[in-house]
């Protein structure tokens, strides 16, 4: 795609252009103000560190990143993260599907909020596995790509995404101990509007945040000016979060998150839906000062997502559908730090588990596509981070998983052991190379294993359960490079780079099939079947790069990713989030006048083929791509003591008509102007 090549070539040119003023001002510039500090995450190794120090493909996005682009959905929070694809469909409403490296749906990506799994799934003609989150509640997102996070819970063959809700530290200005804020946002495409009120404080050993948000989005128009019917929604959300740290040894955090979305779905027939997602988490952290052998974390959570649906147009009028997924779970682990034989160790041992309970009814009977049932998953893990020398480091991990599925008289169970080994070497100060081999295991979901019943007329084919469905096992090889350089061109500037290439094999990959039987006068739906089966092996490969440079008065970020995947037996291209993706952001700050402004380019090509005539040609004939432009500016008048911030964002400036995946039924929004204002008290 020429536009995509232009973007890649342009990124190099932009980097050179940015370098000119940097070099010109190098001699006279003082230490630049407003350098953004490195975020910290509990990385793939479960120990706190900067992403650039983790021997794994990890990325972090913070509230500073979110504010520039005024996100409307959970997917917007992940824009520009290499290897990550998201999709929001008008058919499925405001829920966001998240994929990593071509792996998506049914828990292949472990999506969490404050460490609590979000396992809602409903099979239909729209998106399949979705998460319902108001981005106004989120302060940071941590992403681990691939099966590198062996100790983050079962099923993460694609990776991990953890949305962390806001803390008082995300909101307090320097010198403050408490405060409050009001934010209002309006948008041009779909007449979007949202209001958020937040109170927060950090006094002595207590940190508290209380926030509530109301929003509404009408049906939007695509780049051609065509209105996408039933693409809007109403939203309500709330957050209450309390953190107690009576001393340096103890920390207790409790959070309650509520999200409610009302929307309509369909065209020929229309359903009115209400989706309510609630998450309660409790975390206790014990780190006694007198021993490095104890660094204990105990996390318990309860998540429930309920969806109620009523047919308001078409037949059968008034039909009611209800689906609820409840997930209680826990996660307990301890890290012991010690020296042994001249090497430093961080030994982590833990256990985790969760249970999904699915209740699904339609008109008093079972819900087609999505069966009711229970899934129980228990796991145990051990990992050792070893500092072999000043330059060499080694990470070894082993995980055990056991699961059971039940639905009526049908039952399925299995277990597996998943190892991981990573070796890192610091080539030069701030430059580290690593190689990793990791296995991961995913238990089949209730739907994949136990789907049963018949599709509604007129296409009354049968859903066929497969209690003999085998779990997926993924083997991933990866080579990566981390670069962290400070004071490179100017005092206190920062350059960060993470790059990696990978190749993965997934044995017993679970895929859907539709066995359409043709009769004398057309399809014989009574004899046709739909279900899930194991593909002997699927292959995935690709590469990712994430580069950022911050000089205080100017900054730039570039992310690139390439993902390919196919059925190893047939050569058929996998239809899940593959292709090439590039995002380039360039910006500048004028702190003296309270300005932050910039431009973002987003390009994709070789998207999924929707319905190829010959599936065997799909790997060689991908289609689809787009190039988008976004501009943003924020103004925080210093004369008002930073009490007011005004923001303007223009998405899809040139009104491009595009789809994030060609399998979508509708185009994405055209040009959208977002204006917001925040007042702090």
UniProtKB/TrEMBL annotation:
Motif (TonB C-terminal box): 664-681
Keywords, alphabetical: Cell outer membrane, Membrane, Receptor, Signal, TonB box, Transmembrane, Transmembrane beta strand, Transport
Domain of life per record: Bacteria
Membrane topology field: Multi-pass membrane protein
Residues covered by the TonB-dependent receptor plug domain: 53-160
GO molecular function: heme transmembrane transporter activity; siderophore uptake transmembrane transporter activity
Domain TonB-dependent receptor-like beta-barrel: 225-653
Subcellular location, record wording: Cell outer membrane
Keyword Transmembrane: yes
Annotated Gene3D superfamilies: TonB-dependent receptor, beta-barrel domain (2.40.170.20), TonB-dependent receptor, plug domain (2.170.130.10)
GO biological process: siderophore transmembrane transport
Cleavable signal peptide: 1-26
GO cellular component, one term: cell outer membrane
Pfam families per UniProt: Plug (PF07715), TonB_dep_Rec_b-barrel (PF00593)
Family: Belongs to the TonB-dependent receptor family.
Record PANTHER family: HEME_HEMOPEXIN UTILIZATION PROTEIN C, TONB-DEPENDENT OUTER MEMBRANE RECEPTOR
The protein, known as: Hemoglobin/transferrin/lactoferrin receptor protein
Protein source organism: Caenispirillum bisanense
